[in-house]
Design brief:
Layout: E1 5-11, E2 14-20, E3 23-28, E4 35-39, E5 45-50, E6 54-59, E7 65-69, E8 74-78, E9 84-89, E10 98-103, E11 109-113, E12 127-132, E13 138-145, E14 148-152, E15 159-164, E16 169-175, E17 181-189, E18 210-215, E19 221-225, E20 230-234, E21 240-245, E22 251-259, E23 265-272, H1 274-277, E24 285-291
Length: 301
């Protein structure tokens, strides 16, 4: 029996968890307009960075933090001393809201967006995966993704993985040394992919909604299922090899990250169902941890 431990409570909507320099980092969408928290392994908040509705987090080779502003459609760059500057403007390619980010060892950032205005009830559409070069130049890296979410670059940086939430799959691309994506394939098909035109407002035809995911050293993914209040460990190909329900009734697990000193602690972001919780700053979100057997994959994030 897996044992989950509550690390922190009192957020509005936690997302984008990372393990960096011996601490957990996590975005809290709505509290005080948005913030990034730095949390020690025992759950104490060590630092709070105010940002407009942040989501994905990553770090440049020089140590500066990059944080996606969902509603601002930009990437903020935060220096270690706290100075904030705009690193990139995503508005040309970002539709709906900007979302998660992965920064590779060369300082290239890979970012997705919803692709359509989810909260206004627009029909589902394909989205662009964006590449942001170290100088802040934004370009389209791939098109037609179905709600791109977590982005992962495994060791060797020859592959890029991206979770397509409403396609119930993890897609893979070959990644060249100069940052070109090619040879798109399916890394894990967790459930059937419904056509975009059949996606309804409740996402009833999406059998698994991989949201925030983390990769382990065996190539398996722990993926929060933002549509079905669970988390699962998923093998290459898509088989669910382990599944756990959310630790709190009425909540969903939106994101997960492997970390800790040995890479064997799984951090999970638990929050109200997005249909009730999005835009509600009531402090109901929590972070939970769980020990696992297989450590973090060693790449980014």
């Amino acid at each position: 029996m897996r044992e989950l431990t509550k690390l922190l409570e009192g957020g509005s909507f936690f997302e984008g968890p990372r393990w960096h320099e011996g601490r957990w980092w996590v975005s809290d969408f709505y509290t005080d307009g948005g913030r990034v928290l730095v949390i020690d392994p025992e759950g104490a908040i060590e630092r709070e960075i105010s940002l407009e509705q942040p989501s994905g987090l990553g770090w440049l080779p020089d140590g500066d933090l990059l944080a996606v502003s969902m509603t601002g459609h930009k990437i903020w760059r935060v220096a270690p001393d706290g100075e904030k500057t705009v690193h990139a403007d995503l508005s040309e390619f970002s539709r709906g809201e900007a979302n998660d980010i992965c920064v590779d060892s060369q300082g290239r950032a890979w970012v997705g967006s919803f692709g359509y205005d989810l909260y206004a009830g627009e029909p589902a559409q394909g989205a662009t995966l964006m590449r942001i070069d170290p100088d802040g130049t934004v370009s389209a890296a791939a098109e037609g993704l179905h709600f791109p979410n977590s982005i992962i670059v495994p060791p060797g940086e020859e592959t890029l993985l991206v979770a397509e939430t409403i396609a119930a799959r993890i897609s893979a691309f070959d990644l060249s040394s100069d940052g070109v994506l090619s040879n798109r394939s399916v890394y894990a098909q967790i459930a059937p992919t419904p056509p975009l035109e059949e996606i309804d407002a409740e996402y009833t035809k999406v059998g698994y909604g991989p949201d925030g995911c983390t990769l382990d050293a065996e190539g398996h993914l722990w993926c929060g299922d933002s549509l079905h209040q669970r988390i699962a460990r998923i093998a290459p190909g898509g088989e669910i090899v382990e599944e756990l329900p959310t630790p709190e009734e009425g909540m969903a697990i939106y994101a997960a990250m492997l970390g800790g000193e040995d890479g064997k602690t799984l951090l999970m972001c638990v929050a109200p169902d997005w249909r009730l919780g999005m835009g509600n700053d009531e402090p109901r979100a929590s972070l939970y941890t769980m020990p696992v057997d297989v450590p973090h994959h060693g790449g980014n994030p």
